[in-house]
Amino acid sequence: MNNEIHECITKDRWGRVLSFSKDKETPFQLILSDVIEEKYKELQKNLPFCDVFYAVKANPAKEVLSLLSDLGSNFDVASIYELQRLLELGVDPSRLSFGNTIKKYDHIKIFYDAGIRLFVTDSECDLRNIAKAAPGSKVMVRLMSEGGQTADWPLSRKFGCNPDLAGDLLVLAKKLGLIPYGISFHVGSQQRDITAWDTALSKVNYLFSWLKENENIELSCINMGGGFPATYLEKTHSIETYASEILRYLREDYGDVLPRIIIEPGRSLVGDSGILVSEIVLVSRKSRTALERWVYQDCGKFGGLMETLDESIKYPIICERKGPTEKVILAGPTCDSMDTLYENYQYEMPLSLSVGDRLYWLSTGAYTSSYSAVEFNGFPPLRTYVL
Ligand SMILES: Cc1ncc(COP(=O)(O)O)c(C=O)c1O
């Protein structure tokens, strides 16, 4: 920790953050692009058997997309609006997939007309739309995930289907003239239990074999989605450990010749690159003898800290001041009681903390600016600067 403020924020990087942010009005987010580059290279080094499709929703800043495009990433796209941005940046459509299982017919057509030929689905209705609007395309069917208990931001139930239906959909895809390309899943974002991939992969393997033996359908690809961690307060394993365990699961099922493996990292690529800077607006107690202080600052759930919902993601926070501390309840600036960030989790801050002090929220590069509301209580969306 000697030469580091936090995991990948070296003292040198911290110096850049402080000098850049000095005159800027809060709240805002700073993205350190060299951290993203480092994370991308780390992922490639540890998972060389995977094709990376960056999940644009994690942070759609143009500079972030350009950087990842230059590094060779493909992109998992959730809407026509993300698509438009990528096309404007000159990213080739062959590097894009439409990964959202909930989509309008007209939007599928827009993707198809733009040249995208890889779609993910989990329902018959959507599959039939794809067959009509994007004839001859490759489809992947998404399995429902069971990793909800151990992921800090679960993605279960709303997405995916059970293996029985997944098999039926891939058979139907072939009948409808599509290419049954593979199976996808997402074990939940910030997944701390690596065995969640093992559970999902065993279902995938079953479907690969069943479809081959019973329907003469040979699938070519597994899309393992996201789930790899950023560095928050809750401990996780290194990417190296995730990679070696996942490779072991894959080798058990497929031996030396793996199918094409896609991953769609969002959080793990951009999370640690972000520092959100906020300012304290008010410090108060609720009674003469209250043991804790309420600290209200100018960025809350609607300003980008949405993943504090249910206190799911616990960001490391740096205060400018030092000295003895006590428990605080952290809240945002809007007129909504839901805009309380941490009440149960024991964040401690210096007793000398006062109005105008800055807080530096680390590892806030993913799912912050892209979540911030347009005008709730009149506040503008979170500003992003990319260094
Ligand atoms: C389809 C899909 N792929 C990838 C991701 C990125 O996941 P993560 O941020 O955990 O890497 C998401 C996140 O919501 C997703 O919905």
How would you describe this structure in keywords?
single chain, 387 residues, alpha/beta, TIM Barrel, Lyase, Ornithine Decarboxylase, Chain A, domain 1, 2 domains, eight-stranded parallel β-sheet, 10 helices, 30% helix
Name the ligand types.
Answer: pyridoxal-5'-phosphate
Using the alpha-carbon principal axes, give the shape: elongated
As a whole number of angstroms, the C-alpha radius of gyration is 22 Å
CATH superfamily of the largest domain: Alanine racemase
Overall tally of domains: 2
CATH class of the largest domain: Alpha Beta
Question: Which ranges are low-confidence, i.e. pLDDT below 50, for 5 or more consecutive residues?
Answer: none
The helical percent reads 25-40%
Portion in beta strands = 15-25%
In DSSP terms (H or I, runs of 4 or more residues), the helix count works out at 10
Oligomeric form: single chain
Please explain how this structure is put together:
With 387 residues, the protein is an alpha/beta fold. It contains ten helices and 20 strands. It has two domains: 34-265, TIM Barrel, CATH 3.20.20.10; 272-386, Lyase, Ornithine Decarboxylase, Chain A, domain 1. Strands 3, 14, 15, 16, 17, 18, 19 and 20 form an eight-stranded mixed sheet that branches. Strands 6-5-4-13-12-10-8-7 form an eight-stranded parallel sheet. Strands 1-2 form a two-stranded antiparallel ribbon. Helix 9 (239-254) links the parallel strand 12 and strand 13. The longest helix is centred in the middle third of the chain and has 21 residues, at 195-215. Bound molecules: pyridoxal-5'-phosphate. Pyridoxal-5'-phosphate binds next to helix 10.
